[in-house]
Amino acid sequence: MSFLKILAHSSPTLCPSSSTSSAPIEPFIEISSTQGVTARFLPYGATLTSLFVKDRDSNPVDVVLGFDDVKGYKQDTAYVGRTVGRVCNRIGHGRFTFDGKQYELPINNPPHHLHSGPEGIALKEWEVARHTPTSVTFRKRTNEEEDGLPGDAKIDVTYTVNDRNQLVIEHGATCNAPGVLNLTNHSYWNLDGSQSVRDHLLQVGADKYLPTDSNDYPTGEIASVCGTKFDFNEEKPLSFLCDADGNIDIDNDMVLCDDRQSRYLSLYYLMYFSILWVLCYTTMG
């Protein structure tokens, strides 16, 4: 069974503006492909700060949300663009048992522990282990004394842009003992640079989803998407997710279909008879 996390918000307090200039203010780390895809990063959180692609007129468009300086990221509480771990998402009430030992973690998203808490790798400076014109690898070492999770780990994340207009993100870790590891990139996408994503079209190959309680924690039920706002087997605008106040607020796990050809998320925006499109695909499951 494969899961894919869907997170979308329309609240302006969660969404910093996309970069309006192709010239960086901070000395960000940059990689570029020969096709004109440019990505920028900060070692703080191994963060993807900008991803420029060309529109139909060959103008650069930044399709991820970000801040123009390090200060913005250090004040941010929405994990914009960060590498999150060692365990992303929530650990119920900050407690779990592993290999016969119970672990107690700080509660930073009451009543739960979120994104590995205040000592998570998303809030740390990373080493730049390797940097080429088209690729950068960040490295972070962490241990049980630091983040409260079992064992020690050396974690790498490599970002690569290629000539197929792809941004490839590879996560990996070397651990000295059995432990827990669940890494992710926490970017927010906005394909046209406007103030709203309501007109973006979403399609997800998922026939089930995980309902959550009032604290966004899974109830343990696996429910069908049929007849719910979570049915995106056919593309729909994100406005389909709006609540009574017109806000988009979804933070759920989708259970991907067993068919390997259906394990994807597709988000795209139609503009001037052209398409800006992001496709996520997994072979896991």
From TrEMBL:
Gene3D superfamilies: 2.70.98.10. Keywords: Carbohydrate metabolism, Isomerase, Membrane, Transmembrane, Transmembrane helix. The keyword Isomerase applies. GO terms for molecular function: aldose 1-epimerase activity; carbohydrate binding. The chain crosses the membrane at residues 264-284. InterPro entries: Ald1_epimerase_CS (IPR018052), Aldose_1/G6P_1-epimerase (IPR008183), Gal_mutarotase_sf_dom (IPR011013), Galactose_mutarotase-like (IPR047215), GH-type_carb-bd (IPR014718). It comes from the Eukaryota. SUPFAM superfamilies: Galactose mutarotase-like (SSF74650). Signal peptide: none annotated. It catalyses: alpha-D-galactose = beta-D-galactose. Pathway: Carbohydrate metabolism; galactose metabolism. The keyword Membrane applies. Pfam families: Aldose_epim. PROSITE patterns: ALDOSE_1_EPIMERASE (PS00545). One of its GO terms (biological process) is glucose metabolic process. Mutarotase that catalyzes the interconversion of beta-D-galactose and alpha-D-galactose during galactose metabolism. Beta-D-galactose is metabolized in the liver into glucose 1-phosphate, the primary metabolic fuel, by the action of four enzymes that constitute the Leloir pathway: GALM, GALK1 (galactokinase), GALT (galactose-1-phosphate uridylyltransferase) and GALE (UDP-galactose-4'-epimerase). Involved in the maintenance of the equilibrium between the beta- and alpha-anomers of galactose, therefore ensuring a sufficient supply of the alpha-anomer for GALK1. Belongs to the aldose epimerase family. This is Galactose mutarotase. The lineage of its organism: Eukaryota, Metazoa, Ecdysozoa, Nematoda, Chromadorea. The gene is Acey_s0018.g3565.
